[in-house]
Amino acid sequence: MTPSLQHSTAEKLAGAVSIAQQPHSFQKQALLSLRSDVFWQIRSGFVRSLTWNDQGEVVTLGIWGAGDIVGQPLSRLDAYQIECLTPVKATALSYPAQCSLSAMQAHLQQVEALLNIAHIKRIRDRLLELLTLLAHRFGQKIDQGYLIQARLTHQVIAELLGTTRVTVTRLFNELESQGIISRPCRHQTLLLSPKFPQI
To answer: Is the separation of the CB atoms in 49 and 75 below 8 Å?
Structure first.
């Protein structure tokens, strides 16, 4: 395991997974337990699925929120983790018995959308597409546009886009100065629909 992903197993991993409808609670930065016969359905909060490359750099594979399913049965990667970005409640369900077709379709569509974003050449355009995706999946529609409250750090966004945190910070500042987005408070991004190209 690379240094950037090392956590205290006792502190970060959930205990024995029980297959029940009662949600399990996880703290921010906790890792969801992985089993080949169990997947998790997120009830509240946000998680990311991730791996890392040969250089030890984190690669964020997806951002998941309420209603989404995640887990080992959905990945063939040996290096694979699910990290809580916020406090999370999630239900452990048996695979494949409790795996619904609609949940699988939603998962595949999200992966497809992120793969499409990853192949956009300009980083600025990648960021705009990612914000559009987050707005439609997790955003709250308000008079001024969409309010995203997914609590993604610039580092997590950089790992999603395949760039650096410094570049993401610079692009956010540029978009804000152009009136395309605003950030009313920490971890919130308001997309101003009149100027935002994809909304």
So the answer is: yes
